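DATA SHEET
Item: assembly model
Revision: 1
Owner: S.N.
Input lines:
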Amino acid sequence: MASILPQSGVRPHHPPPIVRLRQTLQALFFSGRSVRRFIALVLFFGIWQILCMIGFNFFINFQLIPSPWEVFNATIEFFFSDPWVHIRSSVVRVLVGFAVASVLGVILGIVIGWFQIAEDLLMPSLELLRPIPAVAWIPLAILMFPNAETGMIYITFIGAFFPILISTIRAVENILHDIVLIRVGQCLGATQWHVFKDIVIPGALPGIAGGLTIGMGNAWFCLVTAEILAGRYGVGYVTWESYVTSNYPPIVMGMLLIGLMGAFSSWAVGRGTAALMPWRVIKKQDA
Amino acid sequence: MRQETMKKEMLTSPPMTKSTPKGAVNVEGISMIFSRQGYSNQVLDSINLQIKPGELACLLGPSGCGKSTLLNIIAGFVRPTAGYVMVDQQPVKKPGADRGFVFQQYSLLPWKTTFQNIEFGLKIKGVPKSEREDMVGEYLNLVGLAKYRNAYPNQLSGGMQQRASIVRALVNSPSVLLMDEPFAALDAQTRHMMQELLLTIWSTLKTTVIFVTHDIEEAVFLGDRIFVMGVQPGRIKAELEVPLARPRHVDDMLTPEFTQLNRQVFELIREETLKSMEKQ
């Protein structure tokens, strides 16, 4: 190919600075993915800091919003005043709620997806409960459960349960719809149990994994709501308490902390479930 | 693109010997009417077939002639409206491992490796692990996939996947191997190699094969007998013996006898193809 093209005598040994800058930026953005992600975060906080410093006020008002710097200071303060009891309380609530939701959601989802009678008996009431937001459950959670702790776990459970349930049902139905895969089992002499164990469950795994990832995020989503019930501890409680006392930087800190822990646990769920599906190779489009 | 590597010497060693001739298939008066919302469509009209043990029979016809439906009925996937199918004097009631099936689509289970896919039927039957290991290993050699035993289907080419599908059915020593246009999705080169491979396997194992295709050349090249099917409703229009000598090679497709036979089948099927085109 190169030999066909006419050779140009002049070669640009020293590109002008503006070109070099562009090349450097390009290299930064398109080379390492971790570099790209880091730059995106720096940009996010940088723009936020600038908007606060200039007191941006056009429809959205940044004048009273804590800047990243103030939030950072609040975070330092928080971490020097025994933060672990708050973090531990919240993590335990979310994880227990998520665990119960996973077990119940996956089992019920498989049963409802597999048996028509289960769908007919269970789905009407579940669909009735599904649109109710977590915050609406607070009064009943107080009435239903023996203590505040189980009430809070129940509210994180509510957030995680429905996405897991619905994803599992749909995933099982999709596999049952795949007539070739079901027939593969049948013509090898598979019993219902083998079809279930070797075809339906592995085939539904990607869908179930998606439900678990969303469910984990939703459990964190409901944490502030849940910890309205808390007397003393919890990251959601700190956030809510700071709002009540009009102390704004810790609110944003609490929000970001929940975001961080939620993102990390969703990532962990994604990694964990991906390990169960070694046959899946995901190749994304390059930008 | 992965290259289709098939070693001839691998194929010539007979992996297993079978003495009792089995695999007689009798199709008796099969009719199939699909009815939906008051509208009914007769897909098959009193089909009778007698397939001899060890025979390679081709069901050839244009799209819409019901050849796949007939194969699905023999497999037990679909219940016929009338008539019945006997395999070795046993009536077909439901799908089973005695009738191996190779699908047109790539149908390996994506979450199992090549080895696990082929092993699946034996596992269901409760064959002990060491025996499964030996049998699957032998069949992997037979189709030149030994190197890919731990690969997942999405790491295999189309031809490799269909080879694995064929031995997945054969490892259960079925009475009959039912093949539903198994090579239709492959490119011409690979298709020819797969046809030759199928003939090699078939002459080694002596399993009865019922092979559904719409490709005249393929039917003439593979078959002992060809059942030409007609449309509206689907029925057996003609039945002809293929007098070509065996073993057959792809080069034989260029001989005058082959071309002559091709031509003959083409004339038979032409009218039906026109009819099926009008319908569409």
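QC remark: Strands of chain A lie at 57-58, 60-61.
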